[in-house]
Amino acid sequence: MCVVGVRTQWRTVGDGEFFCPECGGDRNYRRRTGHRRIVVLGLPLIPRGPAAPVVECTACRGRFGTDVLGHPTTTRFSAMLRDAVHTVALAVLTAGGTGSAPVRAAAVDAVRAAGFPDCTEEQLLTLIEALAADTGRLPGACPDAPGGLTPCGTALAIELHEALEPLAPHLAPTGRESILLQGARIAVADGPYRPAERAVLETVGGALMLGPDDVARLLAAPRTPS
């Protein structure tokens, strides 16, 4: 029998769903705070102050630091990945203009493969028109893009950063490169990059935490139609 020791009395202050690193999947959790006490012969006597808050898995009972909640659940991660590809496809399509049938088809294929199987050209074009009309959020147009309705510059960069930056830390380098390559393949579907397309793809690479040399290497990889 332990004569003297320290015991923590835990109290649940919240709950939710998280990705449990011990279980390797999405699980429910309890967020708990505690106070430590010196225990003598099993009786808690002298307070020793608060314990660091923990996140406790309700399945395996493992306890982790609260930073574990920064990792997205599997469901959330899948949604973030779909949205990232969708945003990149829209950005490349708007930067290069919507007049090219091969580019439109490549954008639809990329979005469908990412997890939107019912995506159509009409849906993408409608979204682009809506973004161009949303002058409060996306002012301006790319001067070298066909049609004159393409949001660009700081506004388009904000859209890409909002979609990609939260995702990038949770992707392996090959995953980040894959997203950039998907955008590049859309851009070259009808020939070499336009200046606005290259600028958008460089923004994508930066938001995905890829260095300039890696971005240049990846943008040189896709082949243009012969």
**Overall SS class:** alpha+beta
Shape: elongated
Helix content: 40-55%
Gap between N and C termini: 81 Å
Overall pLDDT score: 86
Q: Main sheet?
A: 4 strands, antiparallel
Strand tally: 4
Unreliable residue runs: 135-152
Strand arrangement, major sheet = 1-2-3-4
Number of helices: 7
Rg on CA atoms, Å: 25 Å
Strand content: 15-25%
H/E series: EEEEHHHHHHH
Task: Name some characteristics of this structure.
single chain, 226 residues, alpha+beta, four-stranded antiparallel sheet, 7 helices, 43% helix, elongated
Structure summarized in a few sentences:
This protein is of the alpha+beta class and 226 residues long.
Describe this protein's structure.
- 43% of the residues lie in helices and 22% in strands.
- The chain has 226 residues and is α+β, with helices and mostly antiparallel strands.
- The termini are far apart.
- The protein contains seven helices and four strands.
- Residues 135-152 have low confidence and may be disordered.
Compile the SSE list and pairings:
Elements: E1 4-20, E2 25-40, E3 43-57, E4 63-64, H1 74-96, H2 101-114, H3 121-133, H4 153-164, H5 173-187, H6 195-207, H7 212-219
Antiparallel strand pairs: 1-2, 2-3, 3-4
